[in-house]
Please model this.
Amino acid sequence: MPGRGSIPAAALDSCQGRRLNAPDEVKALATEMVSVFEKQQVPREALASALVFQRAAELETATVELVREVAASLARVRREPRERE
Model:
């Protein structure tokens, strides 16, 4: 699935300190990530991570650590073969 790591990486690049730097930009990235994941029918775990990130972005409570955890979760999903195939 191309690009799955690029959106969390972009969010990580937007980070400054403990809170994400541009809340509106991060909200847009999170919304885009969820939309792309739904369209690509990514594994449930990846979509769940994206939804957690989206909710935190909406509440403006997303931290650098959360972005790192989401990126790590997506990397794990990418390494694991899809069971449905």
